[in-house]
Amino acid sequence: MSPVVQIEYCTQCRWLPRAAWLAQELLTTFETELTELSLKPGTGGVFVVRVDDEVVWDRRAQGFPEPTAVKQAVRDRVAPGRSLGHSDRSAGE
């Protein structure tokens, strides 16, 4: 079964546009690897990305994610070894 990604975002902070944009980035990058990507409304400043219930990014610990960083974290769980092209190269710069 293919992985499921969930982006939980704070409705009080109005972070839906940011979550939707990140969802679009992940769906475009991993269109054949993912079974599902969901947006989960939350409160209290939450912005967490999970792959199969495993937290791969938490705003409280890591700050707001750059798409490249989240793509790499998701890739490491859904398609290890896969190149992300320019996204991999820019991460080390």
Q: Specify the overall morphology.
A: globular
Mean model confidence by pLDDT: 90
Helix content: 25-40%
Count of discrete alpha- or pi-helical segments spanning 4 or more residues: 4
Strand content: 25-35%
- Oligomerization state of this entry? single chain
User: Based on helices, strands and strand pairing, what is the structural class?
Assistant: alpha+beta
Strand order, main sheet: write it out. Answer: 2-1-3-4
Would you write up a description of this structure?
The chain is built from four helices and four strands, in the order βαβββααα. α1 (16-29) packs across α3 (67-78). A four-stranded mixed β-sheet has the order 2-1-3-4. Helices cover 39% and strands 26% of the residues. The model has no long low-confidence stretch (mean pLDDT 90). The radius of gyration is 13 Å and the shape is globular. 23% of the residues are buried. A hairpin with a 2-residue loop joins β3 (47-51) and β4. The longest helix has 14 residues, at 16-29. With 93 residues, it is an alpha+beta fold. It starts with a strand and ends with a helix.
Secondary-structure blueprint:
Layout: E1 4-10, H1 16-29, E2 36-42, E3 47-51, E4 54-58, H2 59-62, H3 67-78, H4 86-91
Parallel strand pairs: 1-2
Antiparallel strand pairs: 1-3, 3-4
